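Dear colleague,

Thank you for sharing your sequence with our group. We've completed the structure prediction you requested, and as agreed, I am returning the results in plain text so they can be pasted directly into your records. Please verify that the sequence below matches your submission; if there's any discrepancy, let me know and we will rerun it promptly.
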Amino acid sequence: MPHQVESTRRQILELIKRQGEMTAGRLSEAIGITSMGVRQHLNSLERDGLIATQVVRQKRGRPSHRFRLTEEADRLFPSRYDQMAVDLLDQIVEMDGPDKIDQLFAQRMDALHQEYSDRMDDLSLPEKVEVLSSIRDREGYMAEADTDSVEAFILIEHHCPIYRNCPAFSSSLPL
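Please find the predicted structure tokens below.
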């Protein structure tokens, strides 16, 4: 794809991100290309799952088509939530000491244990590992389970913002 096309699509995404839902006409005015040109880019962005169209009925005339970002498009914009979480943990340590972090994570672990165990009652251990892997994967941890071994069950989380920024951190959930 030519650089100019990528640049225009990025402009469209950024405009919608900053201003919320927009029509092709408003996008055309803001970018300075024809409405037809904007529509071609919108079609590609919609096909790629980055924008969605909402038809809005008018009192008179034809309905208006408004374009908004999808969750997939939101992922294209940088976020530093992981660093913010680590910074907050550091500030808690400064304010109340490291024991407060231990208490915080203990409470979190208790809450997760309760939430997860409610979903896994009456399951065998291999089933629990698979269910936990599925839950954690849906939560964004990119989890996978290895339940083929007779000796051990392994749950791997490939995405954890706290671990990436604080390698000394590790946790285990009792099954």
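Summary note from our side: Residues 3-74 form a domain with the Arc Repressor Mutant, subunit A fold (CATH 1.10.10.10).

Kind regards,
the structure core
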